[in-house]
Design a protein that fits this description.
Length: 234
């Protein structure tokens, strides 16, 4: 049985992975760390490495969680047995994306986090055909509201200042899954094709009928891909 660490994305908690927790709990010992206390990538990864109960493990991260997963490999490559990158980005923010993040931080500081999530982030993250899904909308908003604006600012500051992870991916030679929604806007398919090319033992999966939140938008497809990834020989 594998030890599996699931790392959530921006303003998300373990509810992001509820379908995977249910589907994979029989074949993996799973923990979902909180990525809410730190405002630098180095500190986030260090905290995960200190707090998780496993000496070695498989790690899967969605969006911001994938960025933390790559930093974990940078810091402790000997502890990571396999890697799954879901709807994420190995490159630092560009100039325009940094401008957007700074503006979003200001909105959150002004008490506009709920409106920010609904008006800017949800339409950007969720595929158009899933925007009317009440369960998805409820989970999306509940996670953000429960974490609050201070967590948003810490996480956004980390994302603003993160480095490239290209050399991390080039050096990782264990089983890897690179997965994204076919309609992912912030982290499009082309970006995942680049990560797939950098990794020596990766499988690329494009999930239909999903945007950036694949784990909730099309959980069956994600569960199948992750099960196959965990079953792949070392």
């Amino acid at each position: 049985m594998h030890n599996l660490v699931l790392l959530p994305g921006l303003m998300c908690d373990r509810n992001l992975f509820l379908p995977q927790l249910e589907a994979l709990s029989g074949t993996a010992n799973i923990v979902v760390p909180e990525l809410i206390h730190d405002s630098t990538l180095c500190a986030m990864a260090e905290r995960v490495l200190q707090d998780i109960p496993f000496k070695s493990f498989a790690v899967a991260g969605l969006s911001m969680g994938g960025i933390v997963a790559m930093e974990i490999i940078r810091q402790a490559p000997e502890r990571v047995e396999r890697l799954a990158l879901l709807d994420t980005n190995y490159l630092p923010d560009g100039t325009e994306r940094k401008r957007q993040r700074r503006a979003q931080i200001e909105r959150a500081r002004r008490g506009e986090l709920g409106a920010l999530m609904m008006q800017e982030l949800k339409p950007f993250y969720v595929a158009s055909q899933n925007l009317g899904n009440p369960a998805l909308n409820r989970t999306f908003m509940q996670m953000a509201v429960s974490l609050g604006p201070e967590v948003f600012e810490r996480q956004a500051q980390m994302l603003l200042h993160r480095p490239s992870a290209q050399t991390v991916l080039e050096g990782f030679d264990k089983p890897a899954l690179v997965l994204c929604g076919e309609h992912d806007q912030p982290c499009p398919v082309s970006l995942h094709e680049e990560m797939h090319a950098l990794l020596s033992r990766s499988k690329l999966v494009v999930v239909p009928d999903a945007g950036h939140i694949t784990t909730l938008e099309n959980p069956k497809a994600v569960n199948l891909a992750m099960q196959e990834w965990l079953n792949e020989p070392d």
